[in-house]
């Protein structure tokens, strides 16, 4: 089994910053992609950003230029640096990792961390 522990959420004023972390542990051979998703009340879960094992990144248009995703492969940890936060960034943020077991991939989700941006 694989466990993901997220941290770093909270309440911040518009224009502020937060840094989310997601550490994976357990039966991990290697991790392929790592990503962050978010779900606002009444809305579907959406991709915020993801990063491949080689370091290639992808961002949703709504966060480009404000958020930065990174990973520490030695620590099996993915980060999301969020700057210039807006009220519309308010959501529960979930990390997702894709573990490579050699014969296939398995996806895992974190428990979610609340980010609230006040205007």
Task: Write a brief structural summary.
The chain is mostly beta strands and 119 residues long. The protein is 0% helix and 60% strand.
Tag the structure with descriptive keywords.
0% helix, 7-stranded mixed β-sheet, mainly beta, 4-stranded antiparallel β-sheet, 119 residues, elongated
Rg value: 14 Å
Which regions have little confidence, pLDDT < 50, spanning 5+ residues? Answer: none
Number of helices: 0
In terms of DSSP E residues, the strand content is: over 45%
Q: What is the rounded distance between the termini?
A: 40 Å
Helices and strands, in order, run as EEEEEEEEEEE
Helix percent band: under 10%
Mean pLDDT: 96
Q: Name the assembly state.
A: single chain
Number of beta-strand segments: 11
Class per helix and strand makeup: mainly beta
Can you offer a commentary on this structure?
The chain is built from no helices and eleven strands. A hairpin with a 4-residue loop joins strand 7 (67-72) and strand 8. The chain is mainly β. Strands 2, 4, 5, 6, 9, 10 and 11 form a seven-stranded mixed sheet that branches. A four-stranded antiparallel sheet has the order 1-3-8-7, with no helix packed on it.
